[in-house]
């Protein structure tokens, strides 16, 4: 399929090589944002996603930070992951959010009030939710950059415990895939793929207030369950095999296999490589919809079924590196490059145009539900597309991402209709564009 070329005036319109001057400007912007969001104290080093709102240590955010920081200061990337992995609990659970000293005082108080109202923390202050293990993928990249075996040995046990928890305690359906108990555990908040599982109808106007409080109500239900993964009570609750969680975890298993070989642990390397293959087989067997040529998540322990709503998460098996050539071709030609879905003047929207055309306006006001582009998805999909042989499409996404950021600045996400920055300014994730330039145009980085 031909790349879309009917771009509107003033849009990010080309996939030409990112220049050294463009990279320098991007790097300068990233350095300013990361410096402003940095927290550094004895034994603690991390970046807040945004000092304006998100002032805690967030697990999958730190994964994205480490990948970005590899192009600013690799030692800082390693230090952030070390701080994060040190938060791993005795059961292997690495909290989605940890409140550590050093955050701005005003924001600290606001987060504490929020945590009290939703009971997010236990007595030791870690959140009960987990995150997709982007930080494991980042750990492989950090080691490749630094070659620091001491750092790797010092973080390995916590990486193993974290992956062990996800792969065993969260295998609710018994099929090798990881289940989430709350939409926030996917990182994609109120993705339209969760609406049916939450009892929401995006075509019904009266569901707007229900959507606003759905997350808080479900959190309280999980708290009543004691956050225990076992038991029949989960058959009456939100249990979903999320594609974002599973595709990142699958990639993390492959990273663990590489790192285990480095540490001279061949049996663990075989274990993680086998788990990755098993997860891909399960995604193909359970989540692949042959008619539509795309993946959907499965939910409901009592009556398992697919949530047949397309989002960019439906394309993430490309990021695993294990998607078959036939399925990868379907994802790219039938969906990624389809102007009626994902391929528009600004790429790549989390929610395709044809899905958004079906829903009520209130959906646009829910995070991850409307016209939005998120840089972590652009990074993952560009990486996956290149690895599966779609280098030109990957370069298009990378170049448009860089130029959208240069024009609009560092924001939490971007409007997929205009490329304008949305919600929170000076947000860290756009730093991932540094890695895209280094991958596709290394000469432009001056390295």
Structure write-up:
With 447 residues, the chain is mostly helical. It has a domain at 1-36 and 337-447. Helices cover 46% and strands 8% of the residues. It contains 15 helices and 12 strands. The chain has helices spanning 20-36, 59-69, 74-85, 105-118, 134-146, 149-169, 208-224, 243-262, 266-287, 317-320, 325-336, 353-356, 375-387, 391-408, 432-440, and strands at residues 38-41, 44-47, 57-58, 97-98, 240-241, 288-289, 294-295, 298-299, 305-306, 372-373, 411-415, 421-425. Strand 11 (411-415) and strand 12 form a beta hairpin. Helix 2 packs parallel to helix 5 (134-146). The two termini are 35 Å apart.
List keywords for this structure.
447 residues; mainly alpha; three-stranded antiparallel β-sheet; 15 helices; 46% helix; disordered N terminus
Brief synopsis:
This protein has helices at residues 20-36, 59-69, 74-85, 105-118, 134-146, 149-169, 208-224, 243-262, 266-287, 317-320, 325-336, 353-356, 375-387, 391-408, 432-440; strands spanning 38-41, 44-47, 57-58, 97-98, 240-241, 288-289, 294-295, 298-299, 305-306, 372-373, 411-415, 421-425.
Helices and strands, in N-to-C order?
HEEEHHEHHHHEHHEEEEHHHEHHEEH
- Number of DSSP E strands: 12
Rg value: 20 Å
**What's the helical proportion of residues?**
40-55%
Order of strands in the sheet with the most strands?
5-8-9
What's the pLDDT, averaged over the residues? 91
What would the principal axes of the Cα set say about the shape? Answer: globular
Could you tell me the strand content as a percent range?
Answer: 5-15%
Q: What about the largest sheet?
A: 3 strands, antiparallel
Structural class: mainly alpha
- Poorly predicted spans: 1-13
- Measured distance between first and last alpha carbons: 35 Å
Contiguous helical run count: 15
């Amino acid at each position: 399929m031909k790349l879309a070329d009917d771009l509107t005036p003033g849009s990010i319109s080309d996939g030409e090589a990112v220049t050294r001057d463009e990279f320098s400007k991007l790097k300068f912007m990233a350095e300013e944002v990361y410096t402003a969001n940095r927290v550094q104290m004895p034994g603690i080093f991390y970046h807040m996603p945004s000092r304006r709102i998100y002032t805690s240590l967030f697990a999958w955010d730190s994964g994205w930070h480490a990948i970005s920081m590899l192009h600013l200061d690799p030692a800082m990337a390693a230090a952030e992951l070390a701080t994060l992995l040190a938060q791993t609990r005795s059961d292997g659970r690495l909290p989605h959010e940890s409140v550590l000293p050093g955050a701005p005082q005003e924001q600290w108080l606001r987060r504490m009030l929020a945590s009290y109202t939703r009971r997010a923390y236990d007595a030791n202050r870690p959140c009960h939710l987990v995150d997709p293990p982007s930080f494991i993928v980042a750990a492989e990249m950090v080691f490749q950059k630094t070659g620091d075996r001491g750092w790797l040995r010092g973080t390995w046990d916590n990486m193993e415990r974290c992956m062990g928890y996800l792969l065993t305690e969260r295998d609710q359906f018994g099929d090798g895939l990881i289940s989430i108990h709350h939409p926030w555990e996917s990182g994609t908040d109120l993705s339209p793929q969760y609406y049916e599982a939450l009892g929401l109808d995006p075509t019904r106007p009266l569901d707007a207030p229900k959507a606003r409080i759905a997350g808080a109500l479900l959190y309280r239900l999980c708290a009543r369950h004691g956050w225990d993964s076992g038991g029949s009570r989960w058959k009456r609750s939100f249990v979903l095999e999320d594609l974002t969680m599973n595709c990142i975890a699958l990639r993390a298993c492959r990273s663990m296999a590489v790192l285990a070989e480095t540490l001279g642990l061949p049996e663990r390397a075989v274990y993680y490589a086998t788990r990755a293959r098993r997860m891909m087989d399960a995604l193909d067997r359970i989540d692949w919809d042959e008619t539509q040529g795309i993946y959907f998540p499965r939910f409901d322990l009592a009556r398992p079924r697919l949530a047949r709503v397309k989002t960019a998460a439906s394309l993430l098996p490309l990021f695993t590196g294990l998607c078959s050539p036939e399925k990868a071709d379907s994802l790219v030609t039938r969906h990624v490059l389809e102007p009626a879905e994902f391929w528009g003047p600004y790429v790549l929207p989390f929610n395709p145009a044809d899905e958004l055309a079906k829903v009520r306006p209130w959906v646009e006001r829910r995070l991850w539900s409307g016209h939005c582009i998120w840089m972590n998805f652009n990074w993952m999909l560009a990486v996956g597309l290149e690895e599966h042989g779609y280098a030109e499409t990957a370069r298009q996404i990378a170049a448009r991402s860089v130029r959208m950021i240069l024009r609009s600045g560092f924001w939490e996400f971007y409007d997929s209709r205009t490329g304008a920055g949305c919600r929170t300014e000076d947000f860290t994730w756009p730093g991932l564009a540094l890695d895209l330039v280094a991958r596709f145009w290394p000469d432009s980085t001056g390295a």
